């Protein structure tokens, strides 16, 4: 996942700059990018054994627009615009497919969302545990196409993702 993450970040830097973005904030296993005047995006590489990349879209407050390093306090409580998230999804899918065709022919990928069911994890016996190794996921395509999905623990409404 590490090599894929680096290639994805390089392509995302170029795309973000084409959108008129400012310089990204980069770390060894995470990055923060400009999407538009009201949205930023973060990429985080999971622990090596988990092999997933977390992508989050944030609506930012107007005070964040002049900041090179947006602090968490400048994030809005409003959800991101659906059109912005859809644009990012299209970019991610096409970029991952392109990388797969050129470089990682046998790698598969899927876009998923963390399940919000709140079931207690077996490892920590904690409800709604947010530790990376305790999360389980739902298919984004299934969440977008169905009003209800089952995660194995309970049925969940999918309106939050549509």
Task: Describe the protein in words.
This is FANCA. It comes from Macrostomum lignano. The protein is globular. A hairpin with a 4-residue loop joins strand 7 (148-150) and strand 8. The model is unreliable at 63-71 (pLDDT under 50). It has 162 residues and is an alpha+beta fold. The protein is built from three helices and eight strands. The strands form three sheets. The protein has a four-stranded antiparallel sheet, with helices on one face. A two-stranded antiparallel sheet has the order 5-6. A two-stranded antiparallel sheet has the order 7-8.
SS element count, helices: 3
**Overall geometric form:** globular
* Helical fraction: 25-40%
Uncertain regions spanning at least 5 consecutive residues: 63-71
Distance between the termini: 28 Å
Strand order of the largest sheet: 1-2-3-4
Radius of gyration: 17 Å
User: Helix/strand-derived class?
Assistant: alpha+beta
Number of domains: 2
Q: What value does the average pLDDT take? A: 81
Order of helices and strands: HEEEEHEEHEE
Query: Would you report the number of β strands?
Result: 8
Largest sheet, if any?
Answer: 4 strands, antiparallel
- Percent of residues in β-strands: 15-25%
Keywords:
162 residues, four-stranded antiparallel beta sheet, two-stranded antiparallel ribbon, 8 strands, globular
Characterize this entry briefly:
The chain is of the alpha+beta class and 162 residues long.
Which SSEs are present, and which pair or pack?
Elements lengths: L1 H17 L6 E2 L3 E7 L2 E7 L7 E7 L22 H21 L9 E3 L22 E3 H6 L2 E3 L4 E3 L5
Antiparallel strand pairs: 1-2, 2-3, 3-4, 5-6, 7-8
Helix pairs in contact: 1-2
Organism: Macrostomum lignano
Protein name: FANCA
């Amino acid at each position: 996942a590490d090599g894929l993450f680096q290639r994805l970040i390089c392509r995302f830097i170029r795309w973000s700059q084409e959108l008129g973005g400012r310089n990204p904030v980069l770390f060894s296993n995470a990055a923060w990018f400009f999407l538009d005047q009201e949205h930023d995006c973060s990429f985080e590489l999971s622990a090596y054994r988990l092999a997933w990349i977390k992508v989050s879209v944030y609506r930012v407050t107007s005070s964040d627009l002049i900041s090179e390093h947006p602090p968490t306090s400048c994030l809005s409580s409003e959800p991101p615009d659906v059109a912005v998230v859809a644009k990012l999804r299209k970019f991610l899918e096409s970029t991952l497919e392109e990388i797969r065709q050129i470089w990682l022919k046998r790698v598969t990928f899927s876009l998923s969302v963390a399940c919000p069911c709140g079931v207690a994890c077996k490892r920590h016996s904690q409800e709604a545990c947010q530790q990376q190794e305790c999360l389980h996921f739902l298919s984004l395509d299934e969440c977008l196409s169905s009003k209800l999905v089952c995660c194995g623990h309970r049925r969940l409404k999918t309106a939050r993702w549509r």
